[in-house]
């Protein structure tokens, strides 16, 4: 198969190290040295890579000449391409998510450029690692969590236009695509809807976002947000916020490792001249505190650890920067050491294995065209018997 041979050559021998040094680090030995870039051919059209929960497969996307982005699944030693997914010219595949070790979810959409002006409606599919048993998933849902203690299911939020954005929680059977409704989110006040939730590191729903759209359903000028959190005893409580502006902007970030804090980003506390800052919500006391805010630019995204916990946030004051909540955290120190080793690179984690012993990190040169990254792996350790593999442009 020509495609498989070309993909393997493009990924190159560097990928053969992806899992080869895990046992060495677990026994206290030092990981191998970095593989030189000359060992394998660069391929600037690789766009994203995600490792499976058990570390046995890698799903990655790559671009073809006809404005098509395909998705392939390979064994972690890159000796075999198990599946390639192609949907035709101008079709892009991406946003891959491992539902469990055997099934991968992917999104497909038509990309004709931003000048087209048309709203692009995508589809979502799920398939086995060998490409078989491919099924289209129903529209109107969002993935909330992989259920580590129940790998036959994933947790999703379903939406229906008749419910005006109200989210309903379901378990999705990833084999037969049937869903089971799960109760447990708080009730909204009359005229409002619970439109989003957050799942902690134990796959439990602990935070809910309520939206009252006011009198103008399709204009956010009179929107009002309110929030709920679930304490350890299973009871829901309202979050008390003194909002200096309406409407304010909010987006969820995640939980710390022991699920005692939930982080979100917002500008609710500033009436004007605002930027989006990071706030923590204490899930025992309900107290909200400002954690970080840059005076000139908004927080853009969260930085997660091996257990899905939030380690910090990203922001871009003209160049990518990271803010970490605890510089003494060994997982933070590992990421900071990698960034220091490659100062001209923008380093980010794409995925971890479920046991936390392997991480796949992607880095792009800050002077390069965004998204043009070729694979290179560098084994490292974070001081807790974890192997880390670094993808470098």
List the helices and strands and how they pair.
Layout: H1 2-11, H2 22-26, E1 46-51, E2 57-63, E3 69-75, E4 81-85, E5 91-98, E6 103-110, E7 123-128, E8 135-136, E9 141-146, E10 153-158, E11 168-173, E12 179-182, E13 193-199, E14 205-212, E15 224-230, E16 236-238, E17 250-255, E18 261-266, E19 277-282, E20 288-292, E21 299-304, E22 310-315, E23 321-324, H3 330-341, E24 345-352, E25 358-365, E26 380-381, E27 387-392
Average pLDDT score: 80
* Proportion of residues in β-strands: 35-45%
Q: What percentage of residues falls in helices of 4 or more residues? A: under 10%
The helix tally amounts to: 3
Overall SS class = mainly beta
Q: Uncertain segments of ≥5 residues (pLDDT<50)?
A: 8-44, 367-372, 374-393
Using the alpha-carbon principal axes, give the shape: globular
Sheet with most strands: strand arrangement: 1-2-3-4
Order of helices and strands: HHEEEEEEEEEEEEEEEEEEEEEEEHEEEE
Alpha carbon gap, first and last residue: 27 Å
The count of β-strands is 27
Based on CA atoms alone, the radius of gyration comes out at 22 Å
Biggest beta sheet attributes: 4 strands, antiparallel
């Amino acid at each position: 198969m020509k495609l498989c041979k070309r993909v393997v050559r493009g990924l190159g021998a560097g990928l053969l190290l992806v899992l080869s040094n895990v046992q060495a680090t677990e026994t206290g030995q030092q990981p191998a040295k970095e593989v030189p870039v000359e060992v394998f051919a660069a391929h600037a059209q690789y766009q994203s890579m995600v490792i499976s929960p058990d570390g046995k497969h890698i799903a990655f996307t790559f671009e073809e000449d006809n404005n098509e982005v395909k998705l392939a699944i390979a064994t972690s030693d890159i000796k075999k391409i198990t599946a390639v997914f192609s949907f035709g010219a101008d079709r892009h595949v991406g946003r891959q998510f491992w539902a469990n070790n055997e099934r991968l979810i992917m999104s497909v959409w038509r990309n004709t450029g931003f000048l087209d002006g048309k709203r692009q409606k995508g589809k979502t599919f799920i398939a086995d690692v060998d490409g078989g048993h491919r099924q289209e998933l129903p529209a109107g849902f969002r993935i909330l969590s992989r259920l580590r203690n129940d790998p036959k299911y994933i947790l999703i939020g379903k939406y229906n236009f008749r419910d005006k954005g109200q989210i309903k929680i379901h378990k999705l059977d990833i084999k037969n695509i049937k869903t089971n409704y799960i109760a447990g989110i708080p009730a909204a006040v009359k005229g409002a809807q619970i439109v989003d939730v957050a799942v902690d590191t134990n796959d439990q729903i602990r935070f809910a976002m309520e939206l009252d759209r006011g009198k103008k359903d399709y204009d956010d000028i009179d929107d009002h947000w309110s929030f709920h959190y679930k304490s350890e005893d299973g009871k829901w409580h309202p979050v008390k916020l003194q909002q200096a502006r309406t409407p304010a902007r909010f987006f969820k970030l995640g939980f710390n490792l022991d699920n005692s804090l939930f982080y979100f980003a917002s500008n609710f506390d500033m009436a004007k001249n605002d930027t989006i800052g990071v706030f923590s919500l204490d899930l025992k006391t309900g107290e909200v505190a400002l954690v970080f805010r840059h005076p000139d630019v908004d927080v853009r995204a969260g930085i997660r650890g091996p257990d899905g916990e939030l380690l910090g946030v990203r922001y871009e004051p003209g160049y990518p920067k990271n803010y970490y909540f605890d510089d003494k955290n060994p997982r933070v120190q590992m990421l900071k050491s990698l960034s220091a080793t490659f100062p001209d690179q923008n380093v980010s984690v794409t995925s971890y294995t479920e046991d936390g012993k392997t991480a796949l990190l992607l880095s792009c040169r800050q002077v390069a065209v965004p998204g043009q990254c070729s694979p290179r792996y560098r084994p490292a350790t974070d001081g807790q018997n974890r192997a880390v593999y670094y993808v470098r442009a």
